[in-house]
């Protein structure tokens, strides 16, 4: 994957804004050791909350105080795609690396309070909530970013041919949602964001995540050195896995996405198997960390709402999740960037709008990063 945008993003709860634009054709700098973001869905954190919530009702008041929210609906107003009322839901999940506090140590650099979004996944939950499709959006995709108003009421101008992750850098969660809706034509029903430090702690509190590497992965830049075989990764190793790119595939963000998707499935399997209900302390620690880790849209802005939401997802196992990458092609003017493969992408968005499975033809022949199958749950 390419290096992160050099500008710091808006943090919804603090009101900090910073422009984070890159024009077409600029070359990436080699990424810093820790400047990679979380590659896992906040949806999984919500799943942990539901495990804990069933036995920790008396702690709801405290846990509520942990949550951070953004009023997406108020900020974006009515200029959005029409909500399709067919029983399905679409959730935009972002991973961020806030560069302050504990995250500064993990992400490197100054404690400037800024943040970056490096991972975006559209989670489409089908009617009946028994299965889901997940579409990863590469952060290096060149898009036309629409004008948007952030959560503090500041309006940001539209931009052409900029990296997708500049939307969050420029205007935070609301501009990220606005850009996704402009690219896809699909209304996002919810927003979930998970941060860097919280992810590592969650993995450690779960007792690690078990998966298999089909070949060795050695990437000094992400501090990852795994031989082929079965591993139980602690939080630090998990961060290394989901941020590595030099040790797999073609060294691009596309290859890293393949690892991220495999890790998400392994993590969901782990959450479903861990016996947290037998340990009140473990149950509380998980729920406390999860609620400190996520930022949600205002509709999910209480523990009760988040638990109800997660409860509707808990029957979706990893085997009933289909994960793809948004159809893209390498930018012919800059191999460090990708552009949307429009015709194939339209197949993806049409399938989700109509609550139908994404056809195999939609992703056949598109850029993949050549890392599929290196990690399996």
Molecular structure report:
By secondary structure, the protein is α+β, with helices and mostly antiparallel strands. The protein has one domain (42-376): 3-Layer(aba) Sandwich (Aminopeptidase), CATH 3.40.630.190. It contains 11 helices and 18 strands. The longest helix is centred in the last third of the chain and has 21 residues, at 253-273. It is globular, with a radius of gyration of 19 Å.
Write the topology of this structure.
Layout: H1 42-53, H2 60-64, E1 68-70, H3 72-76, E2 89-96, H4 102-107, E3 117-125, E4 132-137, E5 141-145, E6 148-149, E7 155-156, E8 159-163, H5 166-184, E9 190-195, H6 196-205, E10 209-213, E11 217-219, E12 224-226, E13 229-233, H7 235-243, H8 253-273, H9 280-293, E14 294-297, H10 303-311, E15 321-325, E16 328-331, E17 334-340, H11 342-353, E18 375-376
Parallel strand pairs: 1-14, 2-9, 4-15, 5-17
Antiparallel strand pairs: 2-3, 3-4, 5-8, 6-7, 9-14, 10-13, 10-18, 11-12, 16-17
Helix pairs in contact: 1-8, 1-9, 1-10, 6-7, 6-9, 7-8
